Amino acid sequence: MVAFDEAFRRQLRELFVWRRDVRRFRPDPLPSGAMERLIEIACLSPSVGLSQPWRFVIVEDNARRSAVVEDFRACNADALHSYSGERAARYASLKLAGLEEAPGHLAVFADKTNDMGHRLGRATMPDAVEYSVAAAICCMWLSARADGIGLGWVSILNPARIHEVLEVPESWKFIGYLCVGYPQKEFDRPELERANWEYRRSAKEFTTRR
Ligand SMILES: Cc1cc2c(cc1C)N(C[C@H](O)[C@H](O)[C@H](O)COP(=O)(O)O)c1[nH]c(=O)[nH]c(=O)c1N2
Predict the structure, then answer these.
(1) Residue 47 in contact with residue 53, Cβ under 8 Å?
(2) Ligand 1 pocket, mutate which of 106, 133, 153, 157 (most atoms under 8 A from CB)
(3) Residues at CB less than 6 angstroms from ligand 1
(4) Domain named Nitroreductase: which ranges (predicted)?
(5) Domain holding 113: CATH number?
(6) What is the pLDDT of residues 156-199, one digit of tens each?
(7) Which atom of ligand 1 is nearest to the CA of 187?
């Protein structure tokens, strides 16, 4: 049985506290194999029926990257229009992706048609496939942070356009686009909190007993 001592548990908590969504990256390249190592960690994640539905596209082609940046700009402009007044001004001041600075770009999909796991656990909750991929991204996020590497999840994108740009199978559902690189600075509080967009609440607020 592998046991983890008190010192490790304290450090693990620190890792949860210091994991950040990163939008500001240093230009330093990632060490070779870093993306592949993060994908290997992600593949250790839980998945419904052990279906391992995650599909990763490492985006290296500059034309494809520029097309993603363009899509982000369009989607972000649309999103801004959905706000008004002070909230709109605050939204406009936020940096919501590090697409142009991050050395690593990783698009993450869920393969909804894959038969691994033989559909165990999905009949009543087919979305468990997407949840499994989100869990894998979180494992990757924490492992990256332990290596001092920042990860930024971008969802302000049009899934149909991302499919087109990356030429992936129709059956793959777009889950998120990850910017990967070394963060300019480390923080123990979310940027959206430091920018007064929202603030982290206590667990009590989300807990109900029945
Ligand atoms: C599914 C999903 C989608 C997104 C995000 C997260 C998740 C889970 N986040 C990051 C999000 O804003 C961030 O996690 C919270 O603000 C909390 O900050 P920390 O992650 O604790 O730094 C995010 N951030 C951002 O700047 N642009 C984005 O499009 C998104 N999209």
Answers:
(1) yes
(2) 153
(3) 20-21, 23, 96-97, 153-156, 176, 190, 192
(4) 18-182
(5) 3.40.109.10
(6) 999 999 999 999 999 999 999 999 999 999 999 999 999 999 99
(7) 22
